[in-house]
Amino acid sequence: MKNTLLFLLSACAATVATAQTPTVSTPAATRFYVQPSLVLAIPGSDFDTAMGLGAAVGVSFKSRHSVELEYVQFETEPDAGYAPFDIDFTHILVTYKYRIPFTPKFSSYVGGSIGRVSQKISASQGFYIIGDDTDDSISVGLVGGVQYQFEDNIVFDGGLKVLGQDDTRFTTSGSVLLVQASVKFQF
């Protein structure tokens, strides 16, 4: 995960260093948006890679800034063969993004997230759930990605989030890599 974090930081620095202002000015209007996403979660070496879903609501302002509230959920299990339990990760995050335009339609962004991660463990035996418990902790991280504007109100977004989290009763502290593909609907 350290290599992933270093790569993300390097990519963000290179993006900021090489960004150019687009030839067509973009309006500085405030726009609200909703953004559903598919998520590939890599929760460290102790757990299996998982697929999940996310959804964000946000506001873009001054043509380059945005703030959003995001919900991301995925379920995984320990990476130790058969395990009698699953862990459900639910992130609630506030994310700030700074957009760096390359052309009027193509841009990248960098930013940060802070929020809460809830982990629910469900123990089972065969088809029977024999118990579950929940614990949560703080989650903080970096974000980066690219955007392509199809129409005035539809934007494709591909991004990475590297989130660090404190330990809980079920997991030790560490990081989670989220790879997201989403469509942003602006209004």
How would you describe what is shown here?
- The protein has one helix and eight strands; from the N terminus they run αββββββββ.
- With 187 residues, the chain is mostly beta strands.
- The chain has one domain: Porin.
- It has an eight-stranded antiparallel barrel with strand order 1-2-3-4-5-6-7-8.
- Strand 2 and strand 3 form a beta hairpin.
- The termini are far apart.
Which short descriptors sum up this protein?
187 residues, mainly beta, Porin, 8-stranded antiparallel β-barrel, elongated
Would you summarize the structure shown here?
With 187 residues, the protein is mainly beta. The protein contains one helix and eight strands, in the order H-E-E-E-E-E-E-E-E.
Question: In terms of topology, how is this protein built?
Answer:
Elements: H1 2-18, E1 31-42, E2 50-61, E3 65-76, E4 85-101, E5 106-125, E6 128-151, E7 154-165, E8 174-186
Antiparallel strand pairs: 1-2, 1-8, 2-3, 3-4, 4-5, 5-6, 6-7, 7-8
Signal peptide: 1-19
Domain Outer membrane protein beta-barrel: 9-161
Protein name: Outer membrane protein beta-barrel domain-containing protein
